[in-house]
Design a protein that fits this description.
Number of domains: 1
Number of helices: 2
Shape: flat
Strand content: 15-25%
Largest sheet: 3 strands, parallel
Distance between the termini: 17 Å
Order of helices and strands: EHEEH
Radius of gyration: 13 Å
Number of strands: 3
């Protein structure tokens, strides 16, 4: 696989949106991303009890911002 040359950063967001606190976190991240203007955000709505998304294992982005709710998510993120 060729390395990406783009200066834009690909950031995955693993933050639940089922609670107001999670939505506020996402809102703050979104505001920051607009200010730095070089982040592409990947986000899919999540709940507190959702399992680790399958795509995370092969994630080829620059970073992940997560609200870690359980050991499974922690282990999956450590593998990255």
């Amino acid at each position: 696989m060729k390395p990406r040359i783009s200066k834009r950063k690909r950031i995955a967001l693993l933050v639940e949106s089922s609670l107001g606190s999670g939505r506020e976190i996402l809102r703050g991240i979104s505001q920051f991303a607009r200010q730095v203007d070089n982040w592409d955000l990947l986000y899919a709505p999540r709940g507190l009890e959702d399992v680790v998304p399958e795509w995370l294992e092969s994630w080829d982005g620059d970073g992940v911002i997560a609200r870690i709710q359980d050991e499974n998510m922690l282990r999956a993120l450590k593998k990255l």
